[in-house]
Design brief:
Blueprint lengths: L5 E10 L2 E14 L9 H5 L7 E7 L13 E12 L8 H7 L5 H35 L6 H21 L4 H7 L4 H28 L6 H14 L4 H10 L3 H19 L14
Antiparallel strand pairs: 1-2, 1-4, 3-4
Helix pairs in contact: 2-3, 3-6, 3-9, 4-6, 6-9, 7-8
Length: 279
């Protein structure tokens, strides 16, 4: 048995010669060196062989969660039933065939490289868009009706509640845990809600001022893209979203995307030349 091996073990723990609750396990897989067990337990398994049984002496830490065991010495009788060893597969064409759709390792490497480049470009594009939009919103002067901010706050609160529900929790649980209230939570949300409303108004104003619209061709292309992702017939998918009144949502997203692109295309990027160079 060596460090990083995975040992399949049976164990029985005792304090003062008596078994204790939670101290027994059968066919337990333990990675040696993972620190999953009490300090010193895994170190004493190193060197054991299959079918070997050994008594291991450990001391529970004073901060152990069980007060009955905290600070006590214990003896674990451990039997090794199986030893598994991690082995790295050679990086060759056979490896590439096993883990991907490519026939050669070079093809796999090229694919990984291209995906990393695409991911970096996507992140850079996202960061640029966000910075440009932030600048546009910061420079805009707008009087936002309280009703719009309150509506946005309600929507944000509902989304949080839905997210908690998917995790089997409730807003009440969260509020109780943080000793807060619905009123305080909504009050804390208000600055973000106001910013969201202002951002939407700025984007809408830019789109209208520049005459940015969604063409029928763009709408149909987006519908076909979404339908393909859900493996649905585009015509049937369009009928469904039209009947549900969701077509405007697609139009709005197209206009939003084109407005973002307008900001990027018309931005004046000034490079910072005031950078110290190492001599």
């Amino acid at each position: 048995m060596e460090k990083d091996d995975i040992a399949v073990i049976d164990f029985l723990g005792k304090t003062n010669g008596e078994p204790f609750k939670g101290g027994e396990g059968k066919d337990y897989s333990l990675e040696i060196g993972s620190g999953s067990f009490i300090e010193g337990f895994e170190d004493q398994i190193i060197g054991m062989t299959i079918n070997e049984t050994r008594d291991i002496q450990v001391t529970f830490p004073n901060s152990y969660q069980s007060e009955e065991l905290a600070g006590k010495e214990a003896t674990f009788t451990v039997t090794v039933k199986e030893i598994k060893r991690k082995e790295l597969a050679p990086l060759d064409d056979e490896f590439a065939k096993d883990v991907s759709e490519f026939d050669t390792l070079q093809e796999l490497k090229d694919d990984i490289k291209n995906k990393l480049i695409q991911a970096a470009e996507s992140r850079a594009k996202f960061m640029l868009r966000r910075e440009l939009l932030d600048k546009a919103v910061d420079n805009a002067v707008a009087e936002i009706p309280d009703s719009m901010i309150e509506q946005q706050t309600r929507e944000m609160f509902k989304n949080i509640g839905d997210n908690f529900a998917r995790q089997g929790l409730s807003v009440e649980d969260y509020l109780n845990y943080n000793k807060s209230s619905i009123e305080k939570m909504k009050e804390d949300m208000r600055p973000e809600a106001e910013r969201n409303v202002k951002t939407s108004l700025v984007m809408e104003s830019i789109g209208k001022a520049e005459g940015i619209t969604a063409t029928e061709e763009e709408i149909q292309a987006e519908i076909e893209k979404i339908a393909s992702a859900y493996r649905q017939d585009p015509e049937e998918f369009r009928k469904t979203i039209e009947s549900e009144g969701s077509l405007d949502f697609i139009k709005d997203n197209i206009v939003k995307e084109k407005t973002f692109q307008f900001l990027v295309d018309n931005a004046k990027i000034i490079e910072d030349t005031n950078v110290e160079t190492a001599e």
